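Researcher: Let's do a round of design. I'm pasting the structure tokens now; please hold your answer until I've finished.
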């Protein structure tokens, strides 16, 4: 039973290697690549890089969002008062 499992593992490892090589080839293709190809290609990059903002930029963004919410609340009160 152990030998069969090792043989299965070897077959799976070979299949993974073949798929990774297919993902790295740049043959003549048109259109969007198939989903399985993009999954193999992106398997090493699971973490999306985060955007870094300066403290000044964060402050401006917060002030702008507060201004938008104030305008929204004002519009809601005007609509409720009709």
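Researcher: That's everything. Go ahead.
Model: Designed sequence:
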């Amino acid at each position: 039973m152990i030998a069969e499992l090792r043989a299965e593992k070897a077959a799976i490892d070979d299949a993974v290697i073949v798929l990774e090589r297919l993902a790295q080839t740049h043959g003549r293709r048109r259109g969007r690549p198939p989903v399985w190809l993009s999954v193999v290609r992106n398997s090493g990059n699971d973490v999306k890089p985060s955007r870094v903002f300066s403290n000044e930029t964060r402050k401006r963004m917060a002030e702008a969002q507060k201004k938008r919410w104030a305008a929204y609340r004002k519009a809601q009160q005007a609509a409720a008062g009709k």
